[in-house]
Amino acid sequence: MVKRKMLAADEGLAEQMVRVAEERGQTLFSLVNEVLEQGVRAHDMGLTLKRVVDERGVVEAVREAGFVLAVKTLWFDVVDGAFKRGAKRSMLKKWRETGQWYGKFFVAKKPENSIEGFRDAVCNLMWGASEFDIEVKNGEGEVRCISADFPLSYTELFSAFLGGALEALGYRCTEKDVSKGVIRIRFKVEGEGE
Q1: Is 172 helix (H, G, I), strand (E, B) or coil?
Q2: Degrees, nearest 5: CA angle 10-14-18
Q3: Are 146 and 130 in contact (CB under 8 A)?
Q4: How do residues 83-99 score in pLDDT, each as one tens digit?
Q5: Cα dihedral 157, 178, 106, 124 sign
Q6: pTM score, two decimals?
Q7: In what order do the strands lie in the sheet with 140-146?
Q8: Which of 64, 103, 149, 191 lies at a CB distance of 3.0 to 4.6 Å from 169, suitable for a disulfide?
Q9: How far apart are CA 85 and CA 74, in angstroms?
Q10: 3-class secondary structure for 37-80?
């Protein structure tokens, strides 16, 4: 026999859960137990359900935008090889153009907070970076990316991607510092301070 325990919930949320259960062909009891079970699983993994759902949303957005997962060492080897065989200029151009496309994608997808959407997407995909952040305050900001694993070629290409994205998001670069595994880009809203 299954023992039951009464749980209190906000009336609006309870009504939404009833609707979800009906749409899924479940009982409210089974849906609530499923949600609670997943909440416990997330907790045991050191996560919250909010974080799991938010990150899944980002993964869906970047999947829709055309990102793919690749083995890091293979990716770096391919990029480094092409970069060193004389394709540097064309690769930098392509990465910048791709960054511009992704910046425009996030402007179209999340016009009210496109830079935050872009930052969250990159943060969730930069598993190898020890630090990645984009801070914006009063029309100025800074991108910081640090990864001991990034070869210089990839660091330069990724900085071109970020520069293109910032441009499409309505910013212009005011200072750029790129060295093996370290990117720092300062920027401001396009047209300000000119």
Answers
A1: strand
A2: 175
A3: yes
A4: 888 889 999 999 999 99
A5: positive
A6: 0.73
A7: 131-137, 140-146, 182-189, 171-179
A8: 103
A9: 17
A10: HHHHHHHHCCCCHHHHHHHHHHHHHHHHCCCCCCCHHHHHHHHH
Identify the CA nearest to 124 among candidates 55, 61, 184, 47: 55
Torsion over CA: 194, 105, 126, 57 (sign): positive
Per-residue model confidence (pLDDT) at position 188: 94
Q: What is the pLDDT of residues 17-27, one digit of tens each?
A: 999 999 999 99
Q: Which residues face 177 on adjacent strands? A: 184
Supply the DSSP symbol for 113.
S
At residue 95, what is the residue type? W
The confidence band for 113, taking pLDDT boundaries of 50, 70 and 90, is confident
CA distances (Å), origin 162, targets 75, 98, 153: 18, 9, 14
Distances (CA, A) of 85 to 9, 12, 76, 89: 62, 61, 14, 11
